[in-house]
Every structure is written in C-alpha cells, then in structure tokens.
Request: fold
Amino acid sequence: DGQAAVASAGRTVTVPTGQGTSFVKAQPPAPPRPLPPAPDWAAGAVSGVALLGPSGALEAAWNAVPGARSYRVEVARDAAFVELVLREEVPAAVTRLRAERLPPATYFLRVRAIDGDDFLGLASVVREVTLVGVAFPDEGGAIEGTTLTVSPYAAIRLVSGGALELALDQGPFGPLPEELDLARTAAPAALRLRRSGGGDVTSYRVVYRETRAALALVEAGGGSQAVATFPDVTASFVEQRIQPRVRLVPAGAGEAARELPLVAGAGGFTVSVPTDRAWARL
Reply:
C-alpha cells in the first residue's frame, strides 16, 4: 500500500506502491514487479441491502485474474477488516463465495489474487452489504436472487442488521418495519430498500403465489351450506390470514347482496345460507 526498502545480501531495492519483491536466505532481493491485479466483482455481485430467507446465504462472485494460483476471500464486520468473520484461501478454479448462517448485520467483502510466487495481490473494491433476515411465520415464501415469491395474505417478519428504510413500489421511504403485512397493503409489486438517509437502492420484485379455493353448495339439516376448501394452504393460515367470506347475490332485482364469514369446520370452511329469500348465486 506504500513504498518500502528491502535489503538482503548487501543490496537494497525500493518497492513502490502496488509492487512486490522476494529473497531467499542470503541472496539479494529480486527486482520489484507488479503484484497480481485486484479482482473485479462479477456483474450483479451483492451490495447495499440483501434479504435472506431461512435457508438463504450471502453470495458473491468475482472475475478470474490471469495467472492467479488462488484467492484470499475476506468477510468482516468493519471496513478496516479487523473484526474478521471469514478469511479463506480458495483454489483458482473457485470464483464464488457462499456464506451461510450469517446473522443479520452489516458486512464488508473483499478478495485478492495470489500468484505462483505466493505474492498477495491488490484488494478488490470493498463491497458493503447489510443483511435482513426474512421469516414467513404463517405460510412459506421464497427468495431467489432479487425475486420474492409469497402469498398475498402473508405477514413477513424482517430482522434488520442495520438502520434501513423501505419503500413499497414508488412510494416514499420510511423506517424498515419489523413486520410487513401484505394483506393490509396494496399488493406491492416491488420492495425497495436502502440505508437510512439515502444511498443506493436495492429492489426486490414481488411475485404473488395464487391462493386457490373451491366453493360448493351442499344440503345440510334441511337447509343449505356454502362450503369452501383451500387445497394449497393450511386451515390455520386461512382462518388467521385470509378470513374468507361468501357473497350471496339475491335473485330479486333491487335487493342488496349479503356477505357472511366462513367458519372453519371438519370438511372445510362453511356458512349456513339464509332461507329468508332466494339467492341467484354465491
């Protein structure tokens, strides 16, 4: 990172920034030569803010450096790389990092090439990323890349590793909540995250998993019941999150429709159909 004078066997060489030398026992130092160049991060390498699901991992990739024998990968909790979380040397064929089970926090990443003479190269640009732990307590969701797939009725729990802000679609930024209740929002197509106060924005596309229901009218105890079943989700999820209702449309013109809540039962979610009038459809 600076200039150094290296002396051995009565000879001194000046090693300028970005170069290195070596010597063996009592031999003079070798002439300085450039150190391996800094690796470039691959397109789409993680930075800014990243959402991690229960089985997620922090991933990053870099482009190969010609002549590299191996790489030194470092992940730290501070920009000076004093509080190291990971320091690993990997073969030249490995150009990708996958770090699992990291708790929500802000991390700093860098990588260096090491050549055949064991010269440690220049460090890459430092990548800073804040991890946000994501849990789906009601019904399963998934995060793949920058796509979040989830039920439109789900509540997402967020555990932040730093001071962050969230915006739904193109709306204003506000403090990252501990829980995002999708059933109470306007079904956002994107979640945008950034560090508090501004900076780069990381966007996640939201894809909603279809919630299917089957509705039938059955005879029961001299009357009729509307019965709804939900094959793709658990009964507790339906009861707590979806809270389904049936809409009864009367046969008579000018009469108002009626909505009634469905209640969990042995064969699905049911409600008795009132007999005080004729109904055209459910």
User: Anything to note?
Assistant: The mean pLDDT is 90. DSSP finds one helix and 27 strands in the chain. The CA atoms of residues 192 and 204 lie 6 Å apart.
